[in-house]
Amino acid sequence: xxxxxxxxxxxxxxxxxxxxxxxxxxxxxxxxxxxxxxxxxxxxxxxxxxxxxxxxxxxxxxxxxxxxxxxxxxxxxxxxxxxxxxxxxxxxxxxxxxxxxxxxxxxxxxxxxxxxxxxxxxxxxxxxxxxxxxxxxxxxxxxxxxxxxxxxxxxxxxxxxxxxxxxxxxxxxxxxxxxxxxxxxxxxxxxxxxxxxxxxxxxxxxxxxxxxxxxxxxxxxxxxxxxxxxxxxxxxxxxxxxxxxxxxxxxxxxxxxxxxxxxxxxxxxxxxxxxxxxxxxxxxxxxxxxxxxxxxxxxxxxxxxxxxxxxxxxxxxxxxxxxxxxxxxxxxxxxxxxxxxxxxxxxxxxxxxxxxxxxxxxxxxxxxxxxxxxxxxxxxxxxxxxxxxxxxxxxxxxxxxxxxxxxxxxxxxxxxxxxxxxxxxxxxxxxxxxxxxxxxxxxxxxxxxxxxxxxxxxxxxxxxxxxxxxxxxxxxxxxxxxxxx
Length: 485
Ligand code: SF4
Prior knowledge:
Layout: H1 2-7, E1 14-15, E2 17-23, H2 28-38, E3 46-53, E4 56-63, H3 66-70, H4 75-79, E5 84-90, E6 105-109, E7 112-122, H5 125-134, H6 145-154, H7 160-168, E8 173-180, E9 185-189, E10 198-202, E11 205-209, H8 213-216, E12 221-225, E13 231-235, E14 238-242, E15 252-253, H9 255-260, E16 266-267, E17 270-271, H10 272-286, E18 293-296, H11 302-312, E19 320-322, H12 335-345, E20 346-348, H13 350-353, E21 357-362, H14 369-380, E22 385-390, E23 403-404, H15 412-415, H16 418-425, E24 429-432, H17 435-441, E25 454-455, H18 457-460, H19 468-471
Parallel strand pairs: 15-25, 18-21, 21-22, 22-24
Antiparallel strand pairs: 1-23, 2-5, 2-11, 3-4, 3-5, 6-7, 7-8, 8-9, 9-13, 10-11, 10-12, 13-14, 16-17, 19-20
Helix pairs in contact: 6-7, 10-11, 10-17
The protein binds iron/sulfur cluster.
């Protein structure tokens, strides 16, 4: 379980995965690699592509960054022949980081092969997997995507699409998935639409991607978001769309707007950069500060800081410079080395900060250890006051829908009041955007507690999707290595 523990050890939240698929376009494998490159921010530990060519599926799945695996002259890219392909970029949470868990996963079923790549997390994966193992299933990986494959394989439905739908009717949780068969490209979003999935086209060839930035890199056209609960199937004869899961109220992850999605993406009809600027402006309105500078914690705090600066009239400065060539701090094995990781990643810009009253803007506070070090760094560089403003409400609860979060007792806001947090991270003042303010910034009047438009469970504790594994005291985001193998 050590790989698991390490994956939760960092002081930031991580999206688990990005998915991509293209059907009926020359060079589909290479186009998928490019799409995954644009989705690299959604997962940096491994990437995989499965293409289909002349009766066979070809899989290239490797640990590392997309550019390192599939870069110039890569034999892996050259192998990906055919006009149809799907791909996945991965951050390990469900199932740990073993090579056998790298997606897309592939299986031969009655009626033909299927490859599946999935972004999200199943909240009854443990329960389903335990039952499947009792019934004799032999799992190759510890990924919850394989649960979907086993359920698909065991379905009595006639077609692969109906088998997949039958399987998905049994799962709970958040998923946006793409699947490839010999003759079909399939895209599905869970009934609550928690994770994003967009539809595009390039020279008439359909594309599925987690975010619109993966279309932009190809010069492809954005068509629309896949609807919550929608199954979209492309064949060479055209497209079909189904809603087989019954009508549910959409609960898109509001944290996609705050942090996960790339700012140049448009998801669920909203440009992420504009949403982040609006959050910063709302924060300036709700929690003003008397200060000389607005400084973002780069990179994710930049659009909100711009919004705060423009709304408040306080000048924006790059008071902290980020080194983009540093590995993520979470992979460091001990607290001592992780501490150095923060310093390696961020450096204060003394010339901008010296003698100034600073409003520091960040997207969220998780454990608080990084925030504390950044505040100290800014003070050491000569800032006379530090007022911390956070572009999300306090993160008090764990996510079970595809985002890597620590146990809630490791979340600073779960354990402390705002005043205690301010003292802990060492600031002159601390404020978070309100929940209603956040909803306002993304186009709503306020949060309707009876029917919230988004998933905001990590702030509110109001989880929209049942969590069977958590109720069984089994964390579905945890590896099954210990429990099952
Ligand atoms: Fe997003 Fe938070 Fe809901 Fe997870 S719990 S899906 S991070 S809003």
